[in-house]
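Batch job 17 of 40 flagged for manual review because the log was empty.
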Amino acid sequence: MSSIYNDYLLEVVERKAQGLNPKPIDGAELLEEIIAQIKDTQNEHREESLRLFIYNTLPGTTPAAGVKAQFLKEIILGQEVVAEITPVFAFELLSHMKGGPSIKVLIDLALSEDENIARQAAEVLKTQVFLYDADTARLKAAYEAGNAIAKDILESYAKAEFFTKLPEVPEEIKVVTYIAAEGDISTDLLSPGNQAHSRSDRELHGKCMISPKAQEEITALKAQHPDAQVMLVAEKGTMGVGSSRMSGVNNVALWTGRPSSPYIPFVNVAPIVAGTNGISPIFQTTVDVTGGIGIDLKNWRKKTDANGNVVLNENGDPVLEEVYSVATGTVLTINTKSKKLYNGDKELIDLSKSLTPQKLEFIRAGGSYAIVFGKKIQTFAAQTLGITAPQVFAPAKEVSVEGQGLTAVEKIFNKNAVGVTPGKVLHAGSDVRVKVNIVGSQDTTGLMTAQELEAMAATVIAPTLDGAYQSGCHTASVWDKKAQANIPKLMKFMNEFGLITARDPKGVYHSMTDVIHKVLNDMTVDDWSIIIGGDSHTRMSKGVAFGADSGTVALALATGEASMPIPESVKVTFKGKMKEHVDFRDVVHATQAQMLQQFGGENVFQGRVIEVHIGTLLADQAFTFTDWTAEMKAKASICISQDDTLIESLEIAKSRLQIMIDKGMDNSNGVLKGLIEKANKRIAEIKSGEKPALKPDDNAKYYAEVVVDLDQIDEPMIADPDVHNADVSKRYTHDTIRDLTYYGGEKKVDLGFVGSCMVHKDDLKIVSQMLKNVETEKGYVEFKAPLVVAAPTYNIIDELKAEGDWEYLQKYSGFEFNDLLPKTTARTEYQNILYLERPGCNLCMGNQEKAAKGDTVMSTSTRLFQGRVVEDRDGKKGESLLASTPVVVLSAILGRIPTIEEYKKAVKGINLTKFTPILAN
């Protein structure tokens, strides 16, 4: 018995004890050993080896897939005989391998001299869509050389028979409801951040969805309703807020969907999810990737009085009344023809937005990838044959309004649109394929992105991309065994694929664990860019950025494109003047509070682009606003910047890109050098007046306009998870914004955290300046609660060292990170000292470091969801309140939330982040 196979069997035993099946095979050496045991008809492991080969080997471009495809080829050619795998069955197995080596084998066979084998191979090829340039080039060459089989394949592709011959979407889909939670459901509930290390092991990761009790209840519902599919519901809330998290959708599909193939282990598709207030936009994209359905239930509405006014409760919140019940166990029917949701014969709601022609195609094809690649294959085949491709797919929706100007996002989409009617100006609502400029992959979703790239048989980055980056920030805090096992493998894969990587697989340059959004913000050197990133906080202050699931990131990396409707925009402008003691973070929170107030509690930002006229702030400072728009449930955000401000931001970006080059991070394609050249070109365009900074047309149309009155912001604003709200649906949202005075200087704070993507260099300088102030007043600094400080980037630390601030932070720190001796275990207890942590996400991510259970945390972070930064303990709920840096620092020093008087005294003379609004068009 081989030691490789023996090791695998030991792992099988370990997994069985955890209630898990054998881990899917992706390695070539193990599969070669398994094949050897299949060939040996007397081998004691032959039967199990056959099962593993047929049912438990990962497809695509994994090393194992290459070995599997080659062995199946040998069986088809008669070079090997396996009784259980006939040539016909071998073709069937190849048809489920999704591209890469399997496509090469099928083309080899289709272009072979054996006509019988060639025709069988051709029939299988006609069902495949994951072909790349090398594959299509072979078919084109064969066709031009007069090969009849190649012509037959291309004619089938031109008709898109790979799609038209698929079964139609069933007219009726019966579902049984399961309420996963009341209120907004964060993707952390579906795929907890602290289990990020297991995401690429789909079956293992599935064990962490919601709770073991919920999994049992879902399983019981499936048994009680074998003809129905379980639909996961966010009652009185939005489903999938916080992040796209492909692993969350994968888990939902694993428990409630259907297998994508009998021969691909633990890859399920077609989940059905719903929310009273619909599905978070980026989560909906992930649902589309898996051919699922996302439903806006609208099953609760605001109660009105006889005069039509909204009835408010004692807290000033609208009173909700139930329109119809979706209590767990309710059986409903989705009719895909009438596009309605029914309870028996009773029509409940219209589902047109859930079942658009495009979404129905995704459902029919088992996911959006197949449609994206299918369209490219059809176009290629028609062009090769010199014919016009028939209209098979739903035509792209092109909305054009005569005489109406363009918003900023409409301008960017029009510039980057691919395959639209030439000369046609498109407005919001249009479905568009767009060229992507920058792509970011982060380290806790990156392994899944790598898997997706392997599954879609991609081997090299799209040459049309300006640049792409693989971060190391989400696993920066603790270099534990899980990180040591996963991250080097990820960096090697992405480096070879063509990305700039935070860690050098060869160990030449110093690891850069900078927060991904900060790096992408510097890599974006054109305000007309489209950015796709594997994180909900992919919100740049230049260009327009969309947080996406790991699969959409993979698609953008492989094709250089993305598909989405042009979103509506909400215009945000400012008036008045910031008070001296107010920080820009307070303006950010006040924007959300004032918006809700102006629109009677309706979140007009949800699902739309926030066009924020914030032109006097540099990119780093403006990023604080765009970053927070993820918590406003916006789809994206755009900063309208003044020419001189944009030029200065680009100069800063250039200097940081040069630092990356100096570290040795550029690749053979000179991506970073190319970005500096593009920045220089953009600066020249702005200076010459040839192409000024992006701004909307004066006659652009917006869904809504919000005016933020800076004069109304009189004190620090805090986003509170409101964990004791009697209405469960109101807890853990980002909509409860309170001023400092609300807390009366009494609420205890157990830990302060200054870090995450929301802070910039000035925030770290504020920490230093506040410590100096306290020392000047008292002669010493004493912390009544721990203060954890994690700079977002190494550049910030270098600049703070040069300016003398880092030395002052070191003076009062009880712990300072050491890159030569990184932490190998997560901290579980904190002392009342200052911790200087390694650049990266730290507590904000919650996958490695957390506050002590039950703590009340005051943080500059973006996340206040239950269990993210801090978990509950018996008798005490964990709370993560979000505030500006000075509030956090003072709270840690005092061990409680300060009074407004204490706060004003503490920040006197400190240069807080200030903002002077410009008059928007």
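Reviewer: the log was empty due to a logging misconfiguration, but the result itself is present. The mean pLDDT is 94. Unflagging and moving on to job 18.
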